[in-house]
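Re: that chain you flagged

S.,

Sorry for the slow reply, it's been a week of failed gels. I finally had a moment to sit down with the sequence you sent. For the record, here it is as I used it:
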Amino acid sequence: MNETWLFVDSGSGTPAFNMAMDEALLNWHSEGKIPPVLRMYGWEPAGISVGFFQKIEGSIDTDEAGRRGIPLVRRQTGGKAVLHDEELTYSILVSEAHPAIPKPVKEAYLVLSKGLLEGYRFLGIDAEFAVPPTRNASLSAVCFEEPSWYELTVAGRKVAGSAQTRKKEVVLQHGSVPLVIDDEKLFSLFRFPDEVRREKARNAFRSRAAAISELAGRPVTFEEAKTAFREGFERGLGIRLQPFDPPPELLAEAGELERKYGSDEWTYIREKEGERLP
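Prediction finished late last night. Pasting the structure tokens below so you have them in one place:
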């Protein structure tokens, strides 16, 4: 691409703010106020993001999430629920009309995820793109159960999960890069018919997913991962990243949107029978 994109380092935010900032940046890019954006952020407190079309009832143990102080938030993108805890999250905002962005979703994933691939390589981890076999999709509500097209794997284990949507002629792709995975916490937050099946799923999960620190054989900090993936996206996408501090007007818009993402009306909208999503 050989062009300059903005780099937004948001630090750690609440689940509602994190989703609100992604939407605010999408709006600003759609309106031509800013060029394409790469954003990186963490979660404080930890949160569960549920897919735009996903139903919560029957799949997520909201009582356990409440006891652990883990709020739920509905994201703009589809897919299954993700526990965002000790991780680096990235988001990309780029016009659908950008000459480097393919129109088919899978091909766009391949282009944008090259930054993730290079980020893992900067950390000395030999990742590769997943090409899932043709088979029935998992019925589990847990996102990291198995990779989708062009997500990243190491020795067949999923190491990053991404989701994409297109709104207002802008591609939003964001994803989770776990530094550490606490599978006990993760599987306590999802509903299973009984404890035997919960433990069976948890054991199977360990062979299907992995975090950066496990693969690197040492603790990898948030700052180290952020540096590696920032350089990875520059190399993988052929861009230059220019630091960008969101102006007060953008932060105010994100603050307004945060109220939406923090509301039960938005989070549980799929539970309302017969009501269409906005």
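What I noticed first: The two ends are 34 Å apart (CA to CA).

Talk soon,
D.
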